[in-house]
Amino acid sequence: MEVQDLLGALFNILLVVVIMAAMLSAGFTTTFANLGRVLSRVGLVALVLVTALVIRPLVGWGIAELFSLAVPAYIALIIVATIPGAPLGVIFVMKAKGDVVTGATFQVLLALVASFTFAPTANFIIEAANLGEEITLPVWDLIKTIAFLQILPFTVGLLIRHFSEKTALDWNGFAKKITGPGLLAIIVLALLGSWQMLIDLIGDRVLLAGIVFTVAMIAIGYFLSLGERGTRTATALIEPNANAGPAFAAVAIAFNNEPAILGALTALIFIGIVITAPIAVWLGKDDEDQQASEPTGEMAEGAPSS
Known about the structure:
Number of helices: 13
CATH topology: Na+/H+ antiporter like fold
Largest sheet: none
CATH architecture: Up-down Bundle
Order of helices and strands: HHHHHHHHHHHHH
């Protein structure tokens, strides 16, 4: 077996393990009460779903056309745009001091729903863009694989949390130890498998396209929302980044880890994280400054009346 084949096999095995561990962890930290509380806000749920599943793919498609991306980069951006629900989104919400419960619940919801919507949406855009007669996605294979890898472990984790919170929280520690290093290993393997393509992307339009996409989705997620600042911050920061595990799995299943697509996808995911992180920190700092400028209850009561 050649080194490239060995790396590819290890990459695919890690994908399965990391995706299942991440969704198992999501189940361990989710309760039916939190799900019910967030999902009862029907207007907010509708806006988040429309933004993530309709507007997000259209924005990605528009940016790919605007920057006249090469076919591999074009496909990578469409994959990024059609797979919402990145677990990192919750970390960004925490950094920004947003509504973490709302952010975490919507992150899980988007990841689960996108298991079914990603493949047909991405395939429709790719075919409509006329990227090539032979370029198409195995829609049913992708739905079966990604839905199985995400929905089954999440359901198991959710049920364990419901019947034994202590067991769920204990096991979650183990699942998180797999998810973090595992995702890092996947990115490293992706880099090893496509490093030449990544070097070629330096200065390429795909990086600028990734920046524009990320900023646009943060803005859209914030303004197409309902409620107070914390809720809007949560809906903004769960929108821009792709769910990396299923995204890499899609390239593995549909394109046999084609280095050009894998390289562009890795670059776009990396750019999304690099751009979102400082924005989240800035939003958190801005929130602190606003709170500091507001008078406390005692100060307000003691203030002289005009």
